[in-house]
Amino acid sequence: MSQPWYRHRWPWLLMSGPAAVLLAGAVTTWIAFATADGLVAEDYYKQGVGLNRLIAREERAAQLGLSLELELRQNRIVVRLHGAAPEALFVHLAHATRAGHDQRLRLVPTQPGFYQAELPELPAGRWHIVVEDPRATWRIVKESS
Predict the structure, then answer these.
(1) What is d(CA 114, CA 88) in angstroms, rounded to the nearest whole number?
(2) Which of 39, 40, 46, 80 could be joined to 69 by an S-S link, Cβ 3.0–4.6 Å?
(3) pTM of this prediction exceeds 0.85
């Protein structure tokens, strides 16, 4: 008497390939929906038009002779500004690939030319850092990894 089909090795071996493909497709679909790219803005045209204003603000910082040194510590951000010192600074920390981790902080002066603020825990990765004055007349852009 022969054994039932499910007792043989070959049907299971032949079914394992398509089953693995279905499982990989399900995992890939879950990853695609669970993690957003954050790479393309919905208002990309408006952002492109506003790019000239941002460049002008960076040029304004250069005209004023402003420069800065930036230090990201474990729970604090410290900025040393060389040049005219405003009453506060704003820092925008933008993660290179995950917009959900972006932070906007207000830095207060601690001594002449030095500003600092509490820094929430940041995930590892490349950061685009924009420092600007409260009136948004100038800005300085830095990169950090």
Answers:
(1) 10
(2) 80
(3) no
